[in-house]
């Protein structure tokens, strides 16, 4: 029986592959009492990352590559890995190894205490502005238990795996989905390491998409905000109309002009467009879910042969 499945999504990480393989070999050799499988998920790489992996010399662990037909995103890659994992416990790692492999031992020791189902690795240092901003938004409007310093790594049991495989969500956050399952869970702390080589694929567009996906999938706040703003604007407009009518009838000192009218129209149409955009996000995701298109498409699965030491 496989003890731990390590899922590693990657996209154009050829500069880190050799370091990653050597680190995995060292880690697994020092944990030879555990049966470990490593699942690499190629999220549409255009470089020679897959060739380097296929030609790598590995031992002390099983390994395979799941190749996507195109880029579907890291969360879709993790979902594909979860679907094919066979370990008693499953965890995530990343090709740049900013999260040290030794963290797996801490997670494994902790999850076996008191029959826990989920253990989160929470960063113990202050995060950058985006991570902090995202965490506060999640705590306030979506998931109150979201850690202040965020997380990238988690280990969970086959019970959690079963739930995730039964509900493969598109345009969603795999981390928030796990966090909201409600099973017995706890946290440990760790320090993130600097990236060894290459550039991060965590672009601004992906950050914006994560915020939108998280809110639309796990919070009713945006749609509630539309209703609240609409009510407030209606009340302000109603009171302003009474004021103008009263002033015209009593003082008759309001000059005709386009300034007030243009200002009201600009503000009103701006709020309306924002509201329509929020509603459209929900409608698009409803349409996307109703079409039942696959969250990911696997081109092929390649087994990496083990070599004797």
Describe the model.
With 309 residues, the protein is α/β, with parallel strands linked by helices. The protein is elongated. The model has no long low-confidence stretch (mean pLDDT 81). The protein has 2 domains: 4-199 and 297-304, Spore Coat Polysaccharide Biosynthesis Protein SpsA, Chain A (Alpha-Beta Complex); 221-291. Helix 5 packs parallel to helix 8 (204-218) and helix 9 runs antiparallel to helix 10 (259-291). Helix content is 48%, strand content 17%. The chain has an 8-stranded mixed β-sheet, with helices on both faces.
Helices, strands, pairings?
Layout: E1 4-10, H1 14-30, E2 36-42, H2 49-54, E3 62-68, H3 74-84, E4 89-92, H4 103-111, E5 118-123, H5 129-141, E6 151-157, H6 158-166, H7 174-179, E7 185-190, H8 204-218, H9 221-250, H10 259-291, E8 298-304
Parallel strand pairs: 1-2, 1-4, 2-3, 5-7
Antiparallel strand pairs: 3-8, 4-6, 5-6
Helix pairs in contact: 5-8, 9-10
